[in-house]
Amino acid sequence: MKNMAKIYVLVVAGGIGERLGGDMPKQYLSISGVPILQQSILAFTNHPAISGVRPVINKEHQGYYKQISQDLDCLPPVFGGDTRQKSVRLGLESLAEFAPDIVLIHDAARPFVDSELIDRVIAALKTSKAAIPGIPVTDTTKSVKDGIIIETIPREHLSLAQTPQGFHFDVIMKLHQQCVDSAHFSDDASLCEHNNIAVQIVPGNILNRKITTMVDMTKNIPHICVGHGFDTHAIGAGKNVMILGVSIAAGFSLIGHSDADVGLHSITDALLGAIGDGDIGMHFSPQDERWKGADSGIFLKHAAQKVRDRGAVISHVDVTIIGEKPKVSPYREAMITRLMELLELDRNRVSVKATTTEKLGFCGRGEGLAAFATATVIYP
Ligand code: CTP
Ligand code: MG
Question: Which residues pair with 353 in a beta bridge?
Fold first, then answer.
């Protein structure tokens, strides 16, 4: 191979996604807001070693393709055939005019392909005519007929084939043209195997799986829950108020069983709300002597641990303190630092805000302080 090989990519998207079903073909559905085909194309147009990317689409899907291709920096699409093998051959023929050295053939239905995997396939093509990513089989594997196991297949020599599958262009082009009428091959390496051309296996990535059924779609979408919390405490005699873990010399106090930290209480309730685990009063009874004058950081840490116990992670908390006095802004950074400590979160995952109520209502009249909070938790 030349050092600077000319590398082109086919992204085959001509299928109808029968096994996934639904109204829209699977490659045009979105995962995390981005259409699957768009993600697959972007993985290659963003890769520095690639000279051009050719999508192969179904003739019936032109309307869908138009919708997702506005900002894509790829070649115009060509139409595929009624099998994957035909779609690939038609795609290869459309690339001949560029005289590529190497072609990578990728299933549009594998949107999570990463650039290191692409690098591994390309690197292997320096010494091999064909290379594909594969992942070892880790489960005990059986061959089965009519619902009954025939035998256990030794798995040491088994590998699950992924894409992109890479080839010296002339080699795979010739094989596809020779095999136009022969048996149906479900991937391109099969044509090489059939013709005794060695195919190298490079490590694939378990995340680079193919979207085949609806289950493959839903397991990619993280479960996100948002909890809401509200708290208020009356103002009473005293020198200091505790707000978001910071003691402020306000010339008054807040009345409560614990340290009456209205901000931490509202975030605690938001976290508990996000995991559907009751409220602060259920976890820390105001009748319980243990919590008399307690640091409300204890309550917040407890709620954060409850979130983690559910296998979820805290993505973000946002709190608004409501009152005319004290002015919160001089203490905002100290409050954020305390929340970062208590919740074990980065700076950009914690937000502290404050507002007055323009002297309206109980907060405006200086009878109490209030706080609203939201907490976002993600079940990965
Ligand atoms: N493909 C293609 N042309 C075909 C059939 C499949 O380009 N005639 C593409 C698909 O769009 C997909 C890849 O080949 O990106 C792998 O195929 P598969 O996962 O089987 O997708 P579909 O054929 O669309 O799905 P199904 O088999 O469930 O109908
Ligand atoms: Mg198919």
Answer: 320
Which residues does 302 contact at the CB level (< 8 Å), separation at least 6?
268, 283, 284
- Check if 13 has its Cβ closer than 6 Å to any atom of ligand 1: yes
DSSP string, 122-135: HHHTTT-SEEEEEE
Ligand 1 atom nearest the C-alpha of 26 is: 24
Q: State the pTM of this model.
A: 0.67
56 lines ligand 1 (CB under 6 A): yes
pLDDT of 329 > 90? The answer is yes
* pLDDT per position as a tens digit, 138-183: 999 999 999 999 999 999 999 999 999 999 999 999 999 998 877 6
Q: Tell me how far apart the alpha carbons of residues 230 and 319 are, in angstroms, rounded to a whole number.
A: 9
83 Cβ closer than 6 Å to some ligand 1 atom: yes
Query: Where are the alpha helices (H) located in the chain, listed in sequence order?
Result: 36-45, 62-68, 84-95, 115-124, 169-178, 189-194, 214-218, 262-274, 280-283, 297-309, 332-343, 361-364
The residue nearest atom 10 of ligand 1, judged by CA position, is: 15
- Token pair for 216: 């493959």
Mean pLDDT of the chain: 94
- Summarised one tens digit per residue, pLDDT across range 107-150 is 999 999 999 999 999 999 999 999 999 999 999 999 999 999 99
